[in-house]
Automatic annotation (TrEMBL):
InterPro entries attached to this UniProt entry: Na+/solute_symporter_sf, Put_Na-Bile_cotransptr
One GO cellular component term noted in the UniProt record for this chain: plasma membrane
Keywords, sorted A to Z: Membrane, Transmembrane, Transmembrane helix
Database matches in Pfam families: SBF_like
Protein name, per record: Sodium Bile acid symporter family protein
Protein origin, superkingdom: Bacteria
Entries under Gene3D superfamilies matching the protein: 1.20.1530.20
TM helices/strands, residue ranges: 20-39, 51-71
Amino acid sequence: MHGAKLSREAVIEGILHWKMHLLVFAITFFIFPAIGLLAKPILLPLLGQQLYWGFLFMCFLPSTVQSSIAFTSVAKGNVAGAVCS
């Protein structure tokens, strides 16, 4: 319930951090999938085809919002930015 505690100003400030949002988007939807694809020669023999495809599927999915916000809060980071991301 971190987002419910934020003031309107904090939410607007979080939305305006466009560089952070762009970085999170790029890492989530480009870097993690690329790592999963590049790791295929190593992981496929170790995991087998079905587990590798499951691993690759997880690389293409974003993390859960609640855990991302909780970890940001514990690290004393930009909670408003995490809520808006």
